[in-house]
Amino acid sequence: MEHITLLLAIVVVTALVFDFTNGFHDTANAMATTISTGAMKPKTAVAMSAVLNLVGAFLSVEVAKTISSGLINEDGIKPEVIFAALVGAILWNLLTWLVGLPSSSSHALMGGLVGATIASVGIGGVNGGVVVTKVLIPAVAAPVVAGVAAMLAARLTYKAGSKIDDKTGRKGYRAGQIASAGLVSLAHGTNDAQKTMGIITLALVAGGVLVPGSNPPVWVIVSAGTAIALGTYLGGWRIIRTMGKGLTDLQPQQGFAAQTSAAAVILASSNLGFSLSTTHSCSGAVMGAGLGRKGGVVRWSTATRMFVAWGLTLPAAGLVAAASEFVTQQGDWGVAVVAVFLVASCAAIWLISRRQVVDHTNVNDVDTEGEGEPAGVVTTAIAAVTPPPAGAVTAHASDDLKATIPAPAGETTTPAPAATV
Asked: Is Membrane among this UniProt entry's keywords (predicted)?
């Protein structure tokens, strides 16, 4: 067994950096609805999610096996390829975080790995069947299945709780939201932490440290779980705002339905070894739950931007990874250039994010950039036929109903005060 070289150490560290960005990028998947409905305080929510992400990392290695020995052919893959793949994935994660879009960290990693592999050994190095059956099909199916399940669960929840008084219902659903959010966090650790375990294991195999087909060593499992937990604790507040307030307005019943449905889909896929995007599952569940309440709507303009980001994730990360792989092929100086480029890009994105800070203190505030956004045809139509709730007439509204009757023309006497009706 060979010792870990400097290049291999750089790859491992870069993989853990990706795992860290995966953590804060995907915190919204577990905690956005819980925070937006007030079921938990923001800092408490992300702390709980971080702990459960760490626990989930130890529950299974099926997804890690898909990444390390299924997606691409290990023969001929060098550590430089893994490094280039991680560069593409990290930069896409940070760019989408900057604009507050919940894109898939999983697909960023897959796209980077496929792009770097093609640039290195050609398209023959990619197992197309695995990409289709365990990446692309779940990418399309996950949001649909989770969305339909969440919509039905929300309707069932409202129907079952129709005879429960509001105070008791809110207390019960608050507890249910906390439990389901914990389940999503556990599922996220089970699914997403394994992807970094798989990529590190693949790098160790490429570097000759492990034999092909090996399971992730214990130190890889511990380091990957710790990195994603730390990232989760920091909280991706920009994406939490989009998931919690930008897609739809959720009540506790809907939040409970969305999180339970998403957790069921994610855990089932983890056991089957599908490299499922937790972002796709949770976003689909949130939209489904939004439509599950009578009169509930989805902000389709925000959803459309999110769908566009999903479609661009694989090719964008793949192109950056392919370009990075081309540079790293030039030798040690090429690796150094790509490393400097990655660090400089990360620093630039962070500095830009400081211009408008989003954190736990303002995560539930309305995004002023979206206030003037058109509601969309579907939202407007539903709002037009939805009657206002009882007692909605305010003092301002009653003032608008007053009409002034002027005095008859031609009177010379001092006019009496205008009457109102």
From this structure: yes
Cα(300)–Cα(302) distance, integer angstroms: 5
Residue 80 Rama label (left phi>0; alpha psi -120 to 50; beta): alpha
Any idea what DSSP says for residue 71? Answer: S
Distance, CA of 267 to CA of 286 (rounded, Å): 17
State both tokens at 161.
Answer: 């709780």
Torsion of CA 172, 183, 230, 366, to 10 degrees: -50
Do 52 and 186 contact (CB within 8 A), yes or no? yes
Angle, CA 99 vertex, CA 94 and CA 101 arms, to 5°? 85
What lies within 8 Å, CB to CB, of 97 at 6+ separation is 21, 24, 25, 236, 238, 239, 353
Name every residue whose Cβ is closer than 8 Å to that of residue 243 and which is 6 or more positions away in sequence.
28, 29, 32, 33, 36, 102, 282, 283, 286
Asked whether 261 and 288 are in contact (CB, 8 A), the reply is: yes
Quote the pTM value: 0.76
Contact residues for 21 (Cβ-Cβ < 8 A; gap 6+): 90, 93, 94, 97, 105, 231
CB 368 within 8 A of CB 246: no
Cα–chain center distance at 207: 32
Single out the residue of 342, 297, 284, 350 nearest to residue 146, CA to CA: 284
Condensed to tens digits (0 to 9), the pLDDT of residues 218-272 reads 898 889 889 988 888 886 788 888 776 777 777 777 888 888 888 788 777 766 6
| Torsional sign, CA 263, 44, 109, 242 | positive
